[in-house]
């Protein structure tokens, strides 16, 4: 079984290298030179009204790439489509992509893919939140399949680190990529229902998850009372929830990870060492290291199983196939 998995990962990495060669920065420099500026201004306009749209766009891109590759399949609006899978509950930011697409279509019809708009919007969302910017290789084409059934292998807040590693490895992402990408939880919120089991009756013991810092436990219990509103939103980063920084890693180090899957990173030696590197004690220097590593991990993520060349299509409207 291990040999088969190793072969699959090797094949995927070879495929990734071929596809990355097809993607390139400035892909639209002559066919639609204003595309990236239109996307940036659209994201900025929505962000100025509601900064919480930034983690929404980042999560939307991540969920897109983990199913069928980064091909815009998450954007299809249909009862049996990907976006309606249980794993994709709470996804948001669709209107931002639709807005950017309609403006681009008015300027360069049939040229820019929805998959590329999503990848560029995720980058812009990070930058607007105080995080790094980077050159996004473009040239993705939009997929023609979107099925909720295919979302079953999405990473889950309940996953132990061993399962997280398997799911990321199956996409050609290593342990370093896993921890780095989870650093996106430095911005954004989650629902009480996704972690409240940790607060009151963890593993049916009647007690809270012992890995939760005691003062943080009291804060979470106040925000998510027993039998309270499971849809209530809680920041994934208690210290700087709208700023893209290394605070998330310090929280995990200190027992203040909200999701179980986040806190478990501190218990596995391989993931713990990456968290330690980012959390550190030398303010600024280690923040810059995360700022350097996050773009590299995002470029790797956004190259997963992409369609390029004559594959797929360029959708006229992002929410439906041509």
From TrEMBL:
<keyword id="KW-0376">Hydrogen peroxide</keyword>
<feature type="disulfide bond">
    <location>
        <begin position="32"/>
        <end position="108"/>
    </location>
</feature>
<dbReference type="InterPro" id="IPR019793">
    <property type="entry name" value="Peroxidases_heam-ligand_BS"/>
</dbReference>
<dbReference type="GO" id="GO:0005576">
    <property type="term" value="C:extracellular region"/>
</dbReference>
<dbReference type="InterPro" id="IPR000823">
    <property type="entry name" value="Peroxidase_pln"/>
</dbReference>
<feature type="disulfide bond">
    <location>
        <begin position="65"/>
        <end position="70"/>
    </location>
</feature>
<protein>
    <recommendedName>
        <fullName>Peroxidase</fullName>
        <ecNumber>1.11.1.7</ecNumber>
    </recommendedName>
</protein>
<feature type="disulfide bond">
    <location>
        <begin position="192"/>
        <end position="224"/>
    </location>
</feature>
<dbReference type="InterPro" id="IPR002016">
    <property type="entry name" value="Haem_peroxidase"/>
</dbReference>
<dbReference type="GO" id="GO:0050832">
    <property type="term" value="P:defense response to fungus"/>
</dbReference>
<dbReference type="GO" id="GO:0042744">
    <property type="term" value="P:hydrogen peroxide catabolic process"/>
</dbReference>
<feature type="binding site">
    <location>
        <position position="69"/>
    </location>
    <ligand>
        <name>Ca(2+) 1</name>
    </ligand>
</feature>
<keyword id="KW-0575">Peroxidase</keyword>
<keyword id="KW-0964">Secreted</keyword>
<feature type="disulfide bond">
    <location>
        <begin position="114"/>
        <end position="318"/>
    </location>
</feature>
<keyword id="KW-0479">Metal-binding</keyword>
<keyword id="KW-0349">Heme</keyword>
<comment type="function">
    <text>Removal of H(2)O(2), oxidation of toxic reductants, biosynthesis and degradation of lignin, suberization, auxin catabolism, response to environmental stresses such as wounding, pathogen attack and oxidative stress. These functions might be dependent on each isozyme/isoform in each plant tissue.</text>
</comment>
<keyword id="KW-0560">Oxidoreductase</keyword>
<dbReference type="GO" id="GO:0006979">
    <property type="term" value="P:response to oxidative stress"/>
</dbReference>
<feature type="binding site">
    <location>
        <position position="67"/>
    </location>
    <ligand>
        <name>Ca(2+) 1</name>
    </ligand>
</feature>
<feature type="binding site">
    <location>
        <position position="71"/>
    </location>
    <ligand>
        <name>Ca(2+) 1</name>
    </ligand>
</feature>
<feature type="binding site">
    <location>
        <position position="64"/>
    </location>
    <ligand>
        <name>Ca(2+) 1</name>
    </ligand>
</feature>
<feature type="binding site">
    <location>
        <position position="82"/>
    </location>
    <ligand>
        <name>Ca(2+) 1</name>
    </ligand>
</feature>
<dbReference type="GO" id="GO:0140825">
    <property type="term" value="F:lactoperoxidase activity"/>
</dbReference>
<feature type="binding site">
    <location>
        <position position="155"/>
    </location>
    <ligand>
        <name>substrate</name>
    </ligand>
</feature>
<feature type="binding site">
    <location>
        <position position="245"/>
    </location>
    <ligand>
        <name>Ca(2+) 2</name>
    </ligand>
</feature>
<feature type="site" description="Transition state stabilizer">
    <location>
        <position position="59"/>
    </location>
</feature>
<dbReference type="GO" id="GO:0020037">
    <property type="term" value="F:heme binding"/>
</dbReference>
<keyword id="KW-0408">Iron</keyword>
<feature type="region of interest" description="Disordered">
    <location>
        <begin position="139"/>
        <end position="161"/>
    </location>
</feature>
<dbReference type="InterPro" id="IPR010255">
    <property type="entry name" value="Haem_peroxidase_sf"/>
</dbReference>
<keyword id="KW-1015">Disulfide bond</keyword>
<feature type="domain" description="Plant heme peroxidase family profile">
    <location>
        <begin position="22"/>
        <end position="322"/>
    </location>
</feature>
<feature type="binding site">
    <location>
        <position position="73"/>
    </location>
    <ligand>
        <name>Ca(2+) 1</name>
    </ligand>
</feature>
<feature type="compositionally biased region" description="Polar residues">
    <location>
        <begin position="145"/>
        <end position="155"/>
    </location>
</feature>
<feature type="active site" description="Proton acceptor">
    <location>
        <position position="63"/>
    </location>
</feature>
<feature type="binding site" description="axial binding residue">
    <location>
        <position position="185"/>
    </location>
    <ligand>
        <name>heme b</name>
    </ligand>
</feature>
<feature type="binding site">
    <location>
        <position position="237"/>
    </location>
    <ligand>
        <name>Ca(2+) 2</name>
    </ligand>
</feature>
<feature type="signal peptide">
    <location>
        <begin position="1"/>
        <end position="21"/>
    </location>
</feature>
<keyword id="KW-0106">Calcium</keyword>
<feature type="binding site">
    <location>
        <position position="186"/>
    </location>
    <ligand>
        <name>Ca(2+) 2</name>
    </ligand>
</feature>
């Amino acid at each position: 079984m291990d040999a088969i998995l190793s072969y699959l990962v090797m094949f995927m990495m070879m495929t990734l290298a071929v596809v990355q060669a097809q993607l390139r920065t400035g892909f639209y420099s002559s066919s639609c030179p204003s595309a990236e500026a239109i996307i940036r201004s659209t994201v900025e306009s929505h962000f100025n009204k509601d900064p919480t749209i930034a983690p929404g766009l980042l999560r939307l891109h991540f969920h897109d790439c983990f199913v069928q590759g980064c091909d815009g399949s998450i954007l299809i609006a249909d009862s049996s489509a990907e976006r309606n899978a249980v794993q994709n509950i709470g996804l948001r930011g669709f209107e931002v992509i639709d807005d950017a697409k309609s403006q681009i279509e008015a300027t360069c019809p049939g040229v820019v893919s929805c998959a590329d708009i999503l990848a560029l919007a995720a980058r812009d969302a990070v930058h607007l939140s105080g995080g790094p910017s980077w050159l996004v290789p473009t040239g993705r084409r939009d997929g023609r399949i979107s099925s909720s059934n295919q979302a079953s292998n999405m990473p889950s807040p309940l996953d132990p680190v061993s399962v997280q590693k398997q799911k990321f490895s199956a996409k050609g992402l290593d342990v370093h990529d896993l921890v780095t990408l989870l650093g996106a939880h430095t911005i954004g919120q989650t629902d009480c229902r996704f972690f409240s089991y940790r607060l009151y009756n963890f593993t049916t013991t009647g007690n809270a998850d012992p890995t939760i810092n005691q003062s943080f436990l009291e804060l979470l219990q106040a925000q998510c009372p027993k039998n309270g509103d499971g849809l209530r939103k809680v920041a994934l980063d208690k210290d700087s929830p709208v700023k893209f920084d290394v605070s998330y890693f310090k929280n995990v180090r200190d027992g203040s990870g909200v999701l179980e899957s986040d806190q478990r990173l501190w218990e596995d030696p391989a993931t713990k060492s990456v968290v330690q590197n980012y959390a550190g004690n030398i303010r600024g220097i280690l923040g810059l290291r995360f700022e350097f590593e996050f773009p590299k991990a995002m470029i790797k993520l956004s190259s997963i199983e992409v369609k390029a060349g004559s594959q797929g299509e360029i959708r006229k409207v992002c929410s439906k196939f041509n």
